From TrEMBL:
Top-level division of the source organism's lineage: Bacteria
Protein name: HAD family phosphatase
Any one GO MF annotation of this record: sugar-phosphatase activity
Classification via InterPro entries: HAD-like_sf, HAD-like_SPP, HAD-SF_hydro_IA, HAD_sf, PGP-like_dom2
Membrane-crossing residue ranges in chain numbering: none
Lineage, highest ranks first: Bacteria, Bacillati, Actinomycetota, Actinomycetes, Kitasatosporales
Length: 239
């Protein structure tokens, strides 16, 4: 923290940590985009799979059905009847059998699990439940979450709707005030703030601004065990 950062506010009652999945614990966004690009090419968008910048613009932060609807709007062609399974299968091919957690994640999860002031951890993601479990298992970090996995498909609400995070907190037995959300995407940060939960925005690139006022940006997962229980005042002092 810089010298200008206000002193942290300690939370002696403990903190429950709600993690996003992709971009926070594991990085499968390029594979997700590749799966959707495969379907886009079947619909007539030749070369989409080779244009990572366009794939990022079209697909990142959206649920899969939104992406398929967007591809239909762009091409004027309906997706194939099995578009979603095709995209997911191609994504899993690109990921392969082994998935590394993001740098510092394994260390941070181990340290958090050993802290008496951490009330527990869960994952709340826009992805389907089976996919969440599969990717955490591949990355060998599933055991840290004690079965507390929450999918937007189960509650019928996708980020930026705050309902997913509120449902996760309630199901785990914690008030929003006792929670911290760890997110990287704009939709996830918005969902956390609108749920009334403190938000730590992971951004490995230095100088990244918060997606929303009230989020605190951090740049390395090695800092996370300290930040979740000693929450710095965000820019503007709104929390």
């Amino acid at each position: 923290m810089s010298e200008s950062t206000p002193p942290p506010a300690h939370r002696p009652d403990g903190t429950f940590v709600i993690f996003d999945l992709d971009g926070v614990l594991v990085d499968t966004q390029d594979a997700e985009n590749g799966g959707l690009a495969h379907v886009g090419e079947l619909m007539g968008l030749t070369g989409l799979g080779d244009d990572q910048a366009r794939c990022h613009e079209l697909f990142t932060g959206k649920r899969m059905q939104e992406c398929l609807d967007l591809l239909e709007e762009i091409t004027g062609n309906p997706p194939p009847p099995n578009a979603m399974p095709l995209a997911r299968a191609r994504c899993e091919e690109l990921i392969g059998d082994h998935l590394e957690p993001l740098d510092g994640v394994a260390d941070a999860l181990t340290r958090l699990s050993e802290r008496p002031d951490v009330l527990g951890m869960c994952v709340a993601s826009n992805s389907p439940l089976e996919l969440i479990e599969n990717r955490l298992a591949k990355a060998k970090i599933l055991h840290h979450f004690d079965g507390l996995l929450f999918s937007a498909y189960e509650v019928g609400a996708w980020k930026p709707d705050p309902k997913l995070f509120l449902w996760a907190a309630e199901s785990a037995g914690h008030d929003p005030d006792a929670c911290v959300v760890v997110e990287d995407s704009a939709v996830g940060v918005a969902a956390g703030i609108d749920a009334g939960i403190r938000v730590l925005q992971y951004a490995p690139a230095p100088g990244t601004a918060p997606h929303r006022e009230g989020a605190v940006v951090f740049h390395t997962m090695h800092d996370l065990p300290h930040l979740v229980t000693t929450f710095p005042t965000p820019p503007g002092g709104t929390r």
